């Protein structure tokens, strides 16, 4: 067993870690082959244990919006570790972090820091249930909200890829309290609401979906949900773990001009450290312990090192609006390049795109919900994925993922991705 290679490491990993990975999608099951073990990364590049360099399109699933190993964040973390790693007591940076989040996201009046996106969404629905005194929630097929029991019903991303949308270990009681509707289907939501009058605590969604691949809300969808929630006293939760601080400084809610009651955050907010947050209307957040009766706690919540990284990241994004115009430009350059190649090769695949998120779906259908995403040719995606990898492009190893661009990608990098895409399409299709 040669543990200086990805293959060797994966063989060893499988002995000691379930499936050899600490998060399922990393195992490459959806695309076949053995996962690439990453050794380091800098700016737009990642390097594996085998000595290969790749252009980075995953960016840790979003957090590396400024590219890898950003110097400002490195410096902030180096400074912070001089003062110890954790106190389990309040610190100055937590206050600064909360104030900054509130200023960047106007719907958030109060915010609580946690350690992952999963914790953020679990906590947000607990508060919504406490606040409304109701039990049921509505989620959308193909939306992923972390691995909390309530959300492992028709979940996207890894759960889609592995065909286990209803995980064993989730009780029937929990499953019964989670109602699901097709994404972009307001009429289905209205039906669920009518059939469960005064029982629905919260409606949670990705305002732009990243976890069935990139799927955009149809015109009027978010507005319609806001209206239904207002009429029925349902807490509207935007899960912006992916989209927060990515689709604009104020997230998808700012971009689409819709104000949710609660927002969940993660990924970018930690600058690469394990961080999440949930926040929203003070009226609701005042229910959280110790101010209110809804319990939620964390030994490492607001961890000083994580706060140093996250605060530096958010301050940078807050002070540099040009980040977002650059990401828009890069996203357009990349996806119009892809469109040109697709047309040139006489293909009719669908590209969904917004800002710095995109997915190329191997289907001729418009992808607006989970069934249309699933109409993609997954075998072809697997071939394409490996062709891209062989050409030095590091993408999410599943059709049901969005790619995430960073500001470290120059036009020259984007053009290399466009070229690799065209060659990979040809190779995968034997054109
Ligand atoms: C990644 C993600 C989560 C889960 O966050 P973790 O930090 O992996 O627990 C929740 N919701 C959305 C929309 C996500 O993309």
Automatic annotation (TrEMBL):
InterPro entries: 4pyrrol_synth_GluAld_NH2Trfase, Aminotrans_3, Aminotrans_3_PPA_site, PyrdxlP-dep_Trfase, PyrdxlP-dep_Trfase_major, PyrdxlP-dep_Trfase_small. It is found in: Cytoplasm. The modification N6-(pyridoxal phosphate)lysine is found at residue 267. Pathway: Porphyrin-containing compound metabolism; protoporphyrin-IX biosynthesis; 5-aminolevulinate from L-glutamyl-tRNA(Glu): step 2/2. One of its GO terms (molecular function) is glutamate-1-semialdehyde 2,1-aminomutase activity. It comes from the Bacteria. GO terms for cellular component: cytoplasm. Keywords: Cytoplasm, Isomerase, Porphyrin biosynthesis, Pyridoxal phosphate. It catalyses: (S)-4-amino-5-oxopentanoate = 5-aminolevulinate. GO terms for biological process: protoporphyrinogen IX biosynthetic process. Its EC number is 5.4.3.8. Homodimer. Belongs to the class-III pyridoxal-phosphate-dependent aminotransferase family. HemL subfamily. This is Glutamate-1-semialdehyde 2,1-aminomutase. The lineage of its organism: Bacteria, Pseudomonadati, Bacteroidota, Cytophagia, Cytophagales.
């Amino acid at each position: 067993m040669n543990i200086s290679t990805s293959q060797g490491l994966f063989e060893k990993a499988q002995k000691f870690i379930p499936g050899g990975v600490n998060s399922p999608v990393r195992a490459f099951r959806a695309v076949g082959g053995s996962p690439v073990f990453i050794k380091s990364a800098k700016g737009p590049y990642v390097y594996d244990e085998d000595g290969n360099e790749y252009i980075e399109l995953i960016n840790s699933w979003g957090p590396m919006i400024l590219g890898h190993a950003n110097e400002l964040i490195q410096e902030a973390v180096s400074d912070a570790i001089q003062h110890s790693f954790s106190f389990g007591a309040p610190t100055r940076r937590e206050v600064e972090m909360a104030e900054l989040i509130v200023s960047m996201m106007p719907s958030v009046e109060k915010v609580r820091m946690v350690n992952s996106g999963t914790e953020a969404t679990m906590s947000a629905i607990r508060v919504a249930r406490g606040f409304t005194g109701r039990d049921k929630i509505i989620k959308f097929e193909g939306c992923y909200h972390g691995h909390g029991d309530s959300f492992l019903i028709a979940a996207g991303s890894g759960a889609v890829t592995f065909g286990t949308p209803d995980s064993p270990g989730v009780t029937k009681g929990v499953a019964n309290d989670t109602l699901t509707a097709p994404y972009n289907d307001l009429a289905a939501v209205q039906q669920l609401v009518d059939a469960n009058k005064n029982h629905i605590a919260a409606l949670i969604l990705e305002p732009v979906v990243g976890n069935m691949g990139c799927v955009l809300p149809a015109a009027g969808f978010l507005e319609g949900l806001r209206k239904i929630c207002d009429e029925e006293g349902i807490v509207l939760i935007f899960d912006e773990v992916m989209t927060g601080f990515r689709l604009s400084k104020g997230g998808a809610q700012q971009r689409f001009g819709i104000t949710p009651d609660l927002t969940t955050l993660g990924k970018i907010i930690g600058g690469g450290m394990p961080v999440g947050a949930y926040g929203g209307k003070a009226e609701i957040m005042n229910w959280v312990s110790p101010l209110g009766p809804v319990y939620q706690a964390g030994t490492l919540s607001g961890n000083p090192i994580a706060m140093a990284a996250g605060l530096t990241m958010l301050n940078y994004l807050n002070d540099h609006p040009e980040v977002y115009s650059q990401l828009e430009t890069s996203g357009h350059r990349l996806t119009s390049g892809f469109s040109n190649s697709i047309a040139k090769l006489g293909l009719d695949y669908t590209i969904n795109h917004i800002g710095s998120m995109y997915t190329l779906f191997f289907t001729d259908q418009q992808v607006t919900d989970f069934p249309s995403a699933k109409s993609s040719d997954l075998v072809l995606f697997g071939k394409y994925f490996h062709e891209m990898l062989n050409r030095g492009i590091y993408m999410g190893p599943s059709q049901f993922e969005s790619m995430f661009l960073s500001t470290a990608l120059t036009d020259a990098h984007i053009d290399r991705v466009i070229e690799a895409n065209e060659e990979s399409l040809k190779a995968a299709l034997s054109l």
